[in-house]
UniProtKB/TrEMBL annotation:
Lineage of source species: Bacteria, Pseudomonadati, Pseudomonadota, Gammaproteobacteria, Enterobacterales
Location within or outside the cell: Cytoplasm
Family affiliation: Belongs to the NDK family.
EC numbers on record: 2.7.4.6
Protein known as: Nucleoside diphosphate kinase
Gene label: ndk
Self-association state and partner proteins as the record states: Homotetramer.
GO MF annotation terms: ATP binding; metal ion binding; nucleoside diphosphate kinase activity
Organism: Candidatus Purcelliella pentastirinorum
One Gene Ontology term from the biological process aspect of the record: CTP biosynthetic process
Record keywords, A-Z: ATP-binding, Cytoplasm, Kinase, Magnesium, Metal-binding, Nucleotide metabolism, Nucleotide-binding, Phosphoprotein, Transferase
Length: 146
């Protein structure tokens, strides 16, 4: 039996889709032991983006984030592995790419704080909420033996 298998959400943001680094981002996760168990490309409208990022309403970056995330297609994915939330955050790097460790996804592919290449769930509770926002249970296919 495999212990501590978690699921987390990854969003490949519009700048990463536009810059054609989808495969490179996915490769980094797969090489690190993650399994991509759901994925789809979406073009969110402003209402959908506001609904997803409601926890950030009122923060100084909210309006820029809404505008950016509704500016082009994104790819939403559910990733699975042992300690997925923590490991995802380590792989993507600090939210502010200027503070991200060299070699992390945000260090390598971000344009700035708003256009920081990817979104990753910051807790198990957030992962559950975020996955449910984008996916139905019948769209997620775990590949670990339970």
């Amino acid at each position: 039996m495999i212990m501590n298998i978690e699921q987390t959400l990854l969003i490949i943001k519009p700048n990463s889709v536009l810059n054609n680094v989808i495969g490179e981002i996915y490769s980094r996760f797969e090489r690190s032991g993650f399994r991509i168990i759901a994925a789809k490309m979406l073009f969110l409208n402003e209402y959908q983006v506001k609904s997803f990022y409601i926890l950030h309403k009122g923060k100084y970056f909210f309006d820029d984030l809404i505008s950016f995330m509704s500016s082009g297609p994104i790819i939403v994915s559910v990733l699975e592995c042992k300690d997925a939330v923590k490991r995802n955050r380590e792989l993507i790097g600090h939210t502010d790419p200027s503070l991200a460790i060299t070699g992390t996804i945000r260090s390598d592919y971000s344009d700035n704080l708003t256009k920081n290449a990817v979104h990753g769930s910051d807790s198990i509770r957030s992962a559950y909420r975020e996955i449910k926002f984008f996916f139905n249970k019948n769209e997620i296919f775990s590949r670990f033996i339970k």
